[in-house]
Amino acid sequence: MDLNLNRDSQWLQNKSRRRAITQHCPHKATLHMNKVSYLALMLLFVIYPSSAENNPVIHIVTEHLPPYQIEAKNKKLSGFAVDIIRETMARSDYAYSMKSYPWVRSYKLAQLKENHCIFSIARLKSRENLFKWVGPISKVNNTVMWGLKGEKIEVNKLEDAKNYTIAVNRDDIAHIGLLERGFIEGINLYVLDDSKSLINILITRPEIHLIVADDTTVSFRAELSGVNIAKLQKIHEIKDLPLNFFFACSLHTDDKVIQHLAERLESLYNDGTYETIWNKWQSKLIKVP
């Protein structure tokens, strides 16, 4: 009995001593709990890496190019290509942003910034190693030189066009494609930084003889400039410069991201969604007479 009483007395003394230590040194107990919480948190990071690392936000840039991309005040971006990209991203594992800038800015961002992608961009030989290509987003269209109706301009072959001054948008398919074919800035190429000025400059500057645009977008460009499309005439189709719009990303984007997006884009073709979106916009994508 005495042995049991001694044990009980000793237990009570130890308990009182521990309570006293805790009361006099609360920071030690808190420090212990903080260490435990920190270790548990670190263990979670090891087992479950941050979602930002695994699933980066994809920053998508484009330009105003009706009917592929339509930028309107106080409205969301719309258009055929916008619908294709939005559906692709909806099927992906990534959050994304989509913004429209002048083409020159979008083009640079998509080259230099990690996880930045661009549409609609023509896939040219000289661009092949500047981007990682996700996949095509439009059916192949033509590239045409346009002049003012009534002007006497003769272009039977592309080489003949070097006798005239052609306005092009900086870094677009016409600019790069014609440079590749021997045209020279300041001699037969006049380069613009604002795509909205393309038709206006043809109308207002007599020294500009031609512009380059495809059959689909030229009527929208004319409308944007307040110019009747009937004032323009086709001069020459550049047959070896087809307009094939793609979705592409910067070289600083992980290959796994590119592969994932390519698979999601391809799924639109495989299940008929691409054709459904095409049919929705078809009336605005047909060629002008």
Primary descriptors:
289 residues, alpha/beta, 2 domains, D-Maltodextrin-Binding Protein, domain 2, 5-stranded mixed β-sheet, single chain
CATH topology-level fold name of the largest domain: D-Maltodextrin-Binding Protein, domain 2
Helical content band: 40-55%
Total beta-strand segments? 10
Q: Output the strand order for the largest sheet.
A: 2-1-3-10-4
Main beta sheet, described?
A: 5 strands, mixed
- Kindly report the average pLDDT value: 84
CATH domain class of the largest domain:
Alpha Beta
Structural class: alpha/beta
Number of helices: 10
- List the domain count as a whole number: 2
What is the strand and helix layout of this fold?
Blueprint lengths: L1 H23 L1 H22 L3 H4 L3 E5 L17 H11 L5 E5 L2 H10 L3 E7 L9 E5 L7 E5 L17 E4 L3 H8 L8 E4 L5 H7 L5 E4 L1 H11 L6 E6 L7 E5 L5 H16 L2 H13 L4
Parallel strand pairs: 1-2, 1-3, 6-7, 6-8
Antiparallel strand pairs: 3-10, 4-10, 5-8, 5-9
Account of the 3D structure:
This protein starts with a helix and ends with a helix. It folds into 2 domains: about 55-140 and about 245-285, Periplasmic binding protein-like II (D-Maltodextrin-Binding Protein, domain 2); about 145-235, D-Maltodextrin-Binding Protein, domain 2, CATH 3.40.190. The chain is globular. The chain is an alpha/beta fold and about 290 residues long. It is about 45% helix and about 15% strand. Strand 6, helix 6 (about 175-180) and strand 7 form a beta-alpha-beta unit. The strands form 2 sheets. A 5-stranded mixed beta sheet has the order 2-1-3-10-4, with helices on both faces. It has a 5-stranded mixed beta sheet with strand order 7-6-8-5-9, with helices on both faces. The chain has helices at about 1-25, 25-45, 50-55, 80-90, 105-110, 175-180, 200-205, 215-225, 255-270, 275-285; strands at about 60, 95-100, 115-120, 130-135, 145-150, 165-170, 190, 210-215, 230-235, 245-250.
